Amino acid sequence: MEYRKIKDEDKDEGAAGDDIESLRNKSISAPISNVATLGGDSNDRSKWKRKTIVTLALTILTSSQAILIVWSKRAGKYEYSVTTANFLVETLKCVLSLAALARIWKNEGVTEDNRLSTTLDEVSVYPIPAALYLVKNLLQYYIFAYVDAPGYQILKNLNIISTGVLYQMILKRKLSEIQWAAFILLCAGCTTAQLNPSSDHVLQTPYQGWIMAIVMALLSGFAGVYTEAIIKKRPSRNINVQNFWLYVFGMVFNAVAILIQDFDAVMNKGFFHGYSLITVLMILNHALSGIAVSLVMKYADNIVKVYATSVAMLLTAIVSVFLFGFHLSLAFFLGSTVISVSVYLHSIGKLTRQR
């Protein structure tokens, strides 16, 4: 009996000791857990802030892009060479990427993720999107023979449809039913905004403009999805290194375009013939827009990119009222409203899909 009593007391003491040790471990682990949670929240806020900044920058730059292109025309024509302008855009983007890398090398040193030296396998994927962007950028100038600046911004929203389909096919990223409904609304909004009540034609844009817009949407969508896959294949790789190699191939392809299309004009009139201050601002705008697009792909995705350009349409229309005397018709207002609802539904659908 005495032995059993002592044994029971030992058990009680052991249980009490375990309880004390458990409480001690909880008291130690709780602050660590809280610190980890706070660190995670801080990291999430930093990512959200960075994503918001690059998206707003892309929206503002895109909204002024079409206006600058229209402004750069004289008597309805481009006096400068479009191919040389595109070449300078790629060159400026390359220079800006190198400048950003130089600053990083100075502050952080050269690492495996920010060094320019790379392998043939990594570099060999960049010519494809560079070639696609070349054709798309050239079409971007010629489409203004058929559409005005606000109409161009609306037609650019077709990129959302092509991007959504290509997301499903290439990146295997499924979109929710609400998001697909938002795409359908976007089509309705684009069509409604193009209605011209004062004309006998159903659509204000001729079929040439629609064909060019559809081709641009397919090229932009495929190039965007492909570029995002390249950029996110190695997340730790510095975005400026990835941009540098993409823009180098862009320079090469645009140089070839100059030789094929405008060689005689450049040799006879000069490389910078027909350039003005507006042309320079347009080139700067295109360069910054291209870098903003790559940052959005790095820290967000292509869906965010194309919706940012959709919101830019509203800003373009408002500015065009004061600059070009553009009249906001009821059809344009209704179409813009439907597009805005589409943007909202798509964001709701994204949140629903993440839950």
From TrEMBL:
Q: Where is the composition biased (Acidic residues)?
A: 10-20
Q: Keywords assigned by UniProt?
A: Membrane, Transmembrane, Transmembrane helix
Report the locations given in the UniProt record: Membrane
The UniProt entry, under InterPro entries, shows:
Nuc_sug_transpt (IPR007271)
ATP-binding listed as a keyword: no
Positions of the UniProt region annotated as Disordered: 1-22
Which Pfam families does UniProt cross-reference here? Nuc_sug_transp
Task: State the membrane topology.
Answer: Multi-pass membrane protein
Q: Membrane-spanning residues where?
A: 53-72, 178-195, 207-231, 243-260, 272-297, 304-324, 330-349
What NCBIfam families does the entry give?
Answer: nst
PANTHER family registered for this protein in UniProt: NUCLEOTIDE-SUGAR TRANSMEMBRANE TRANSPORTER
Q: What is this protein called?
A: CMP-sialic acid transporter
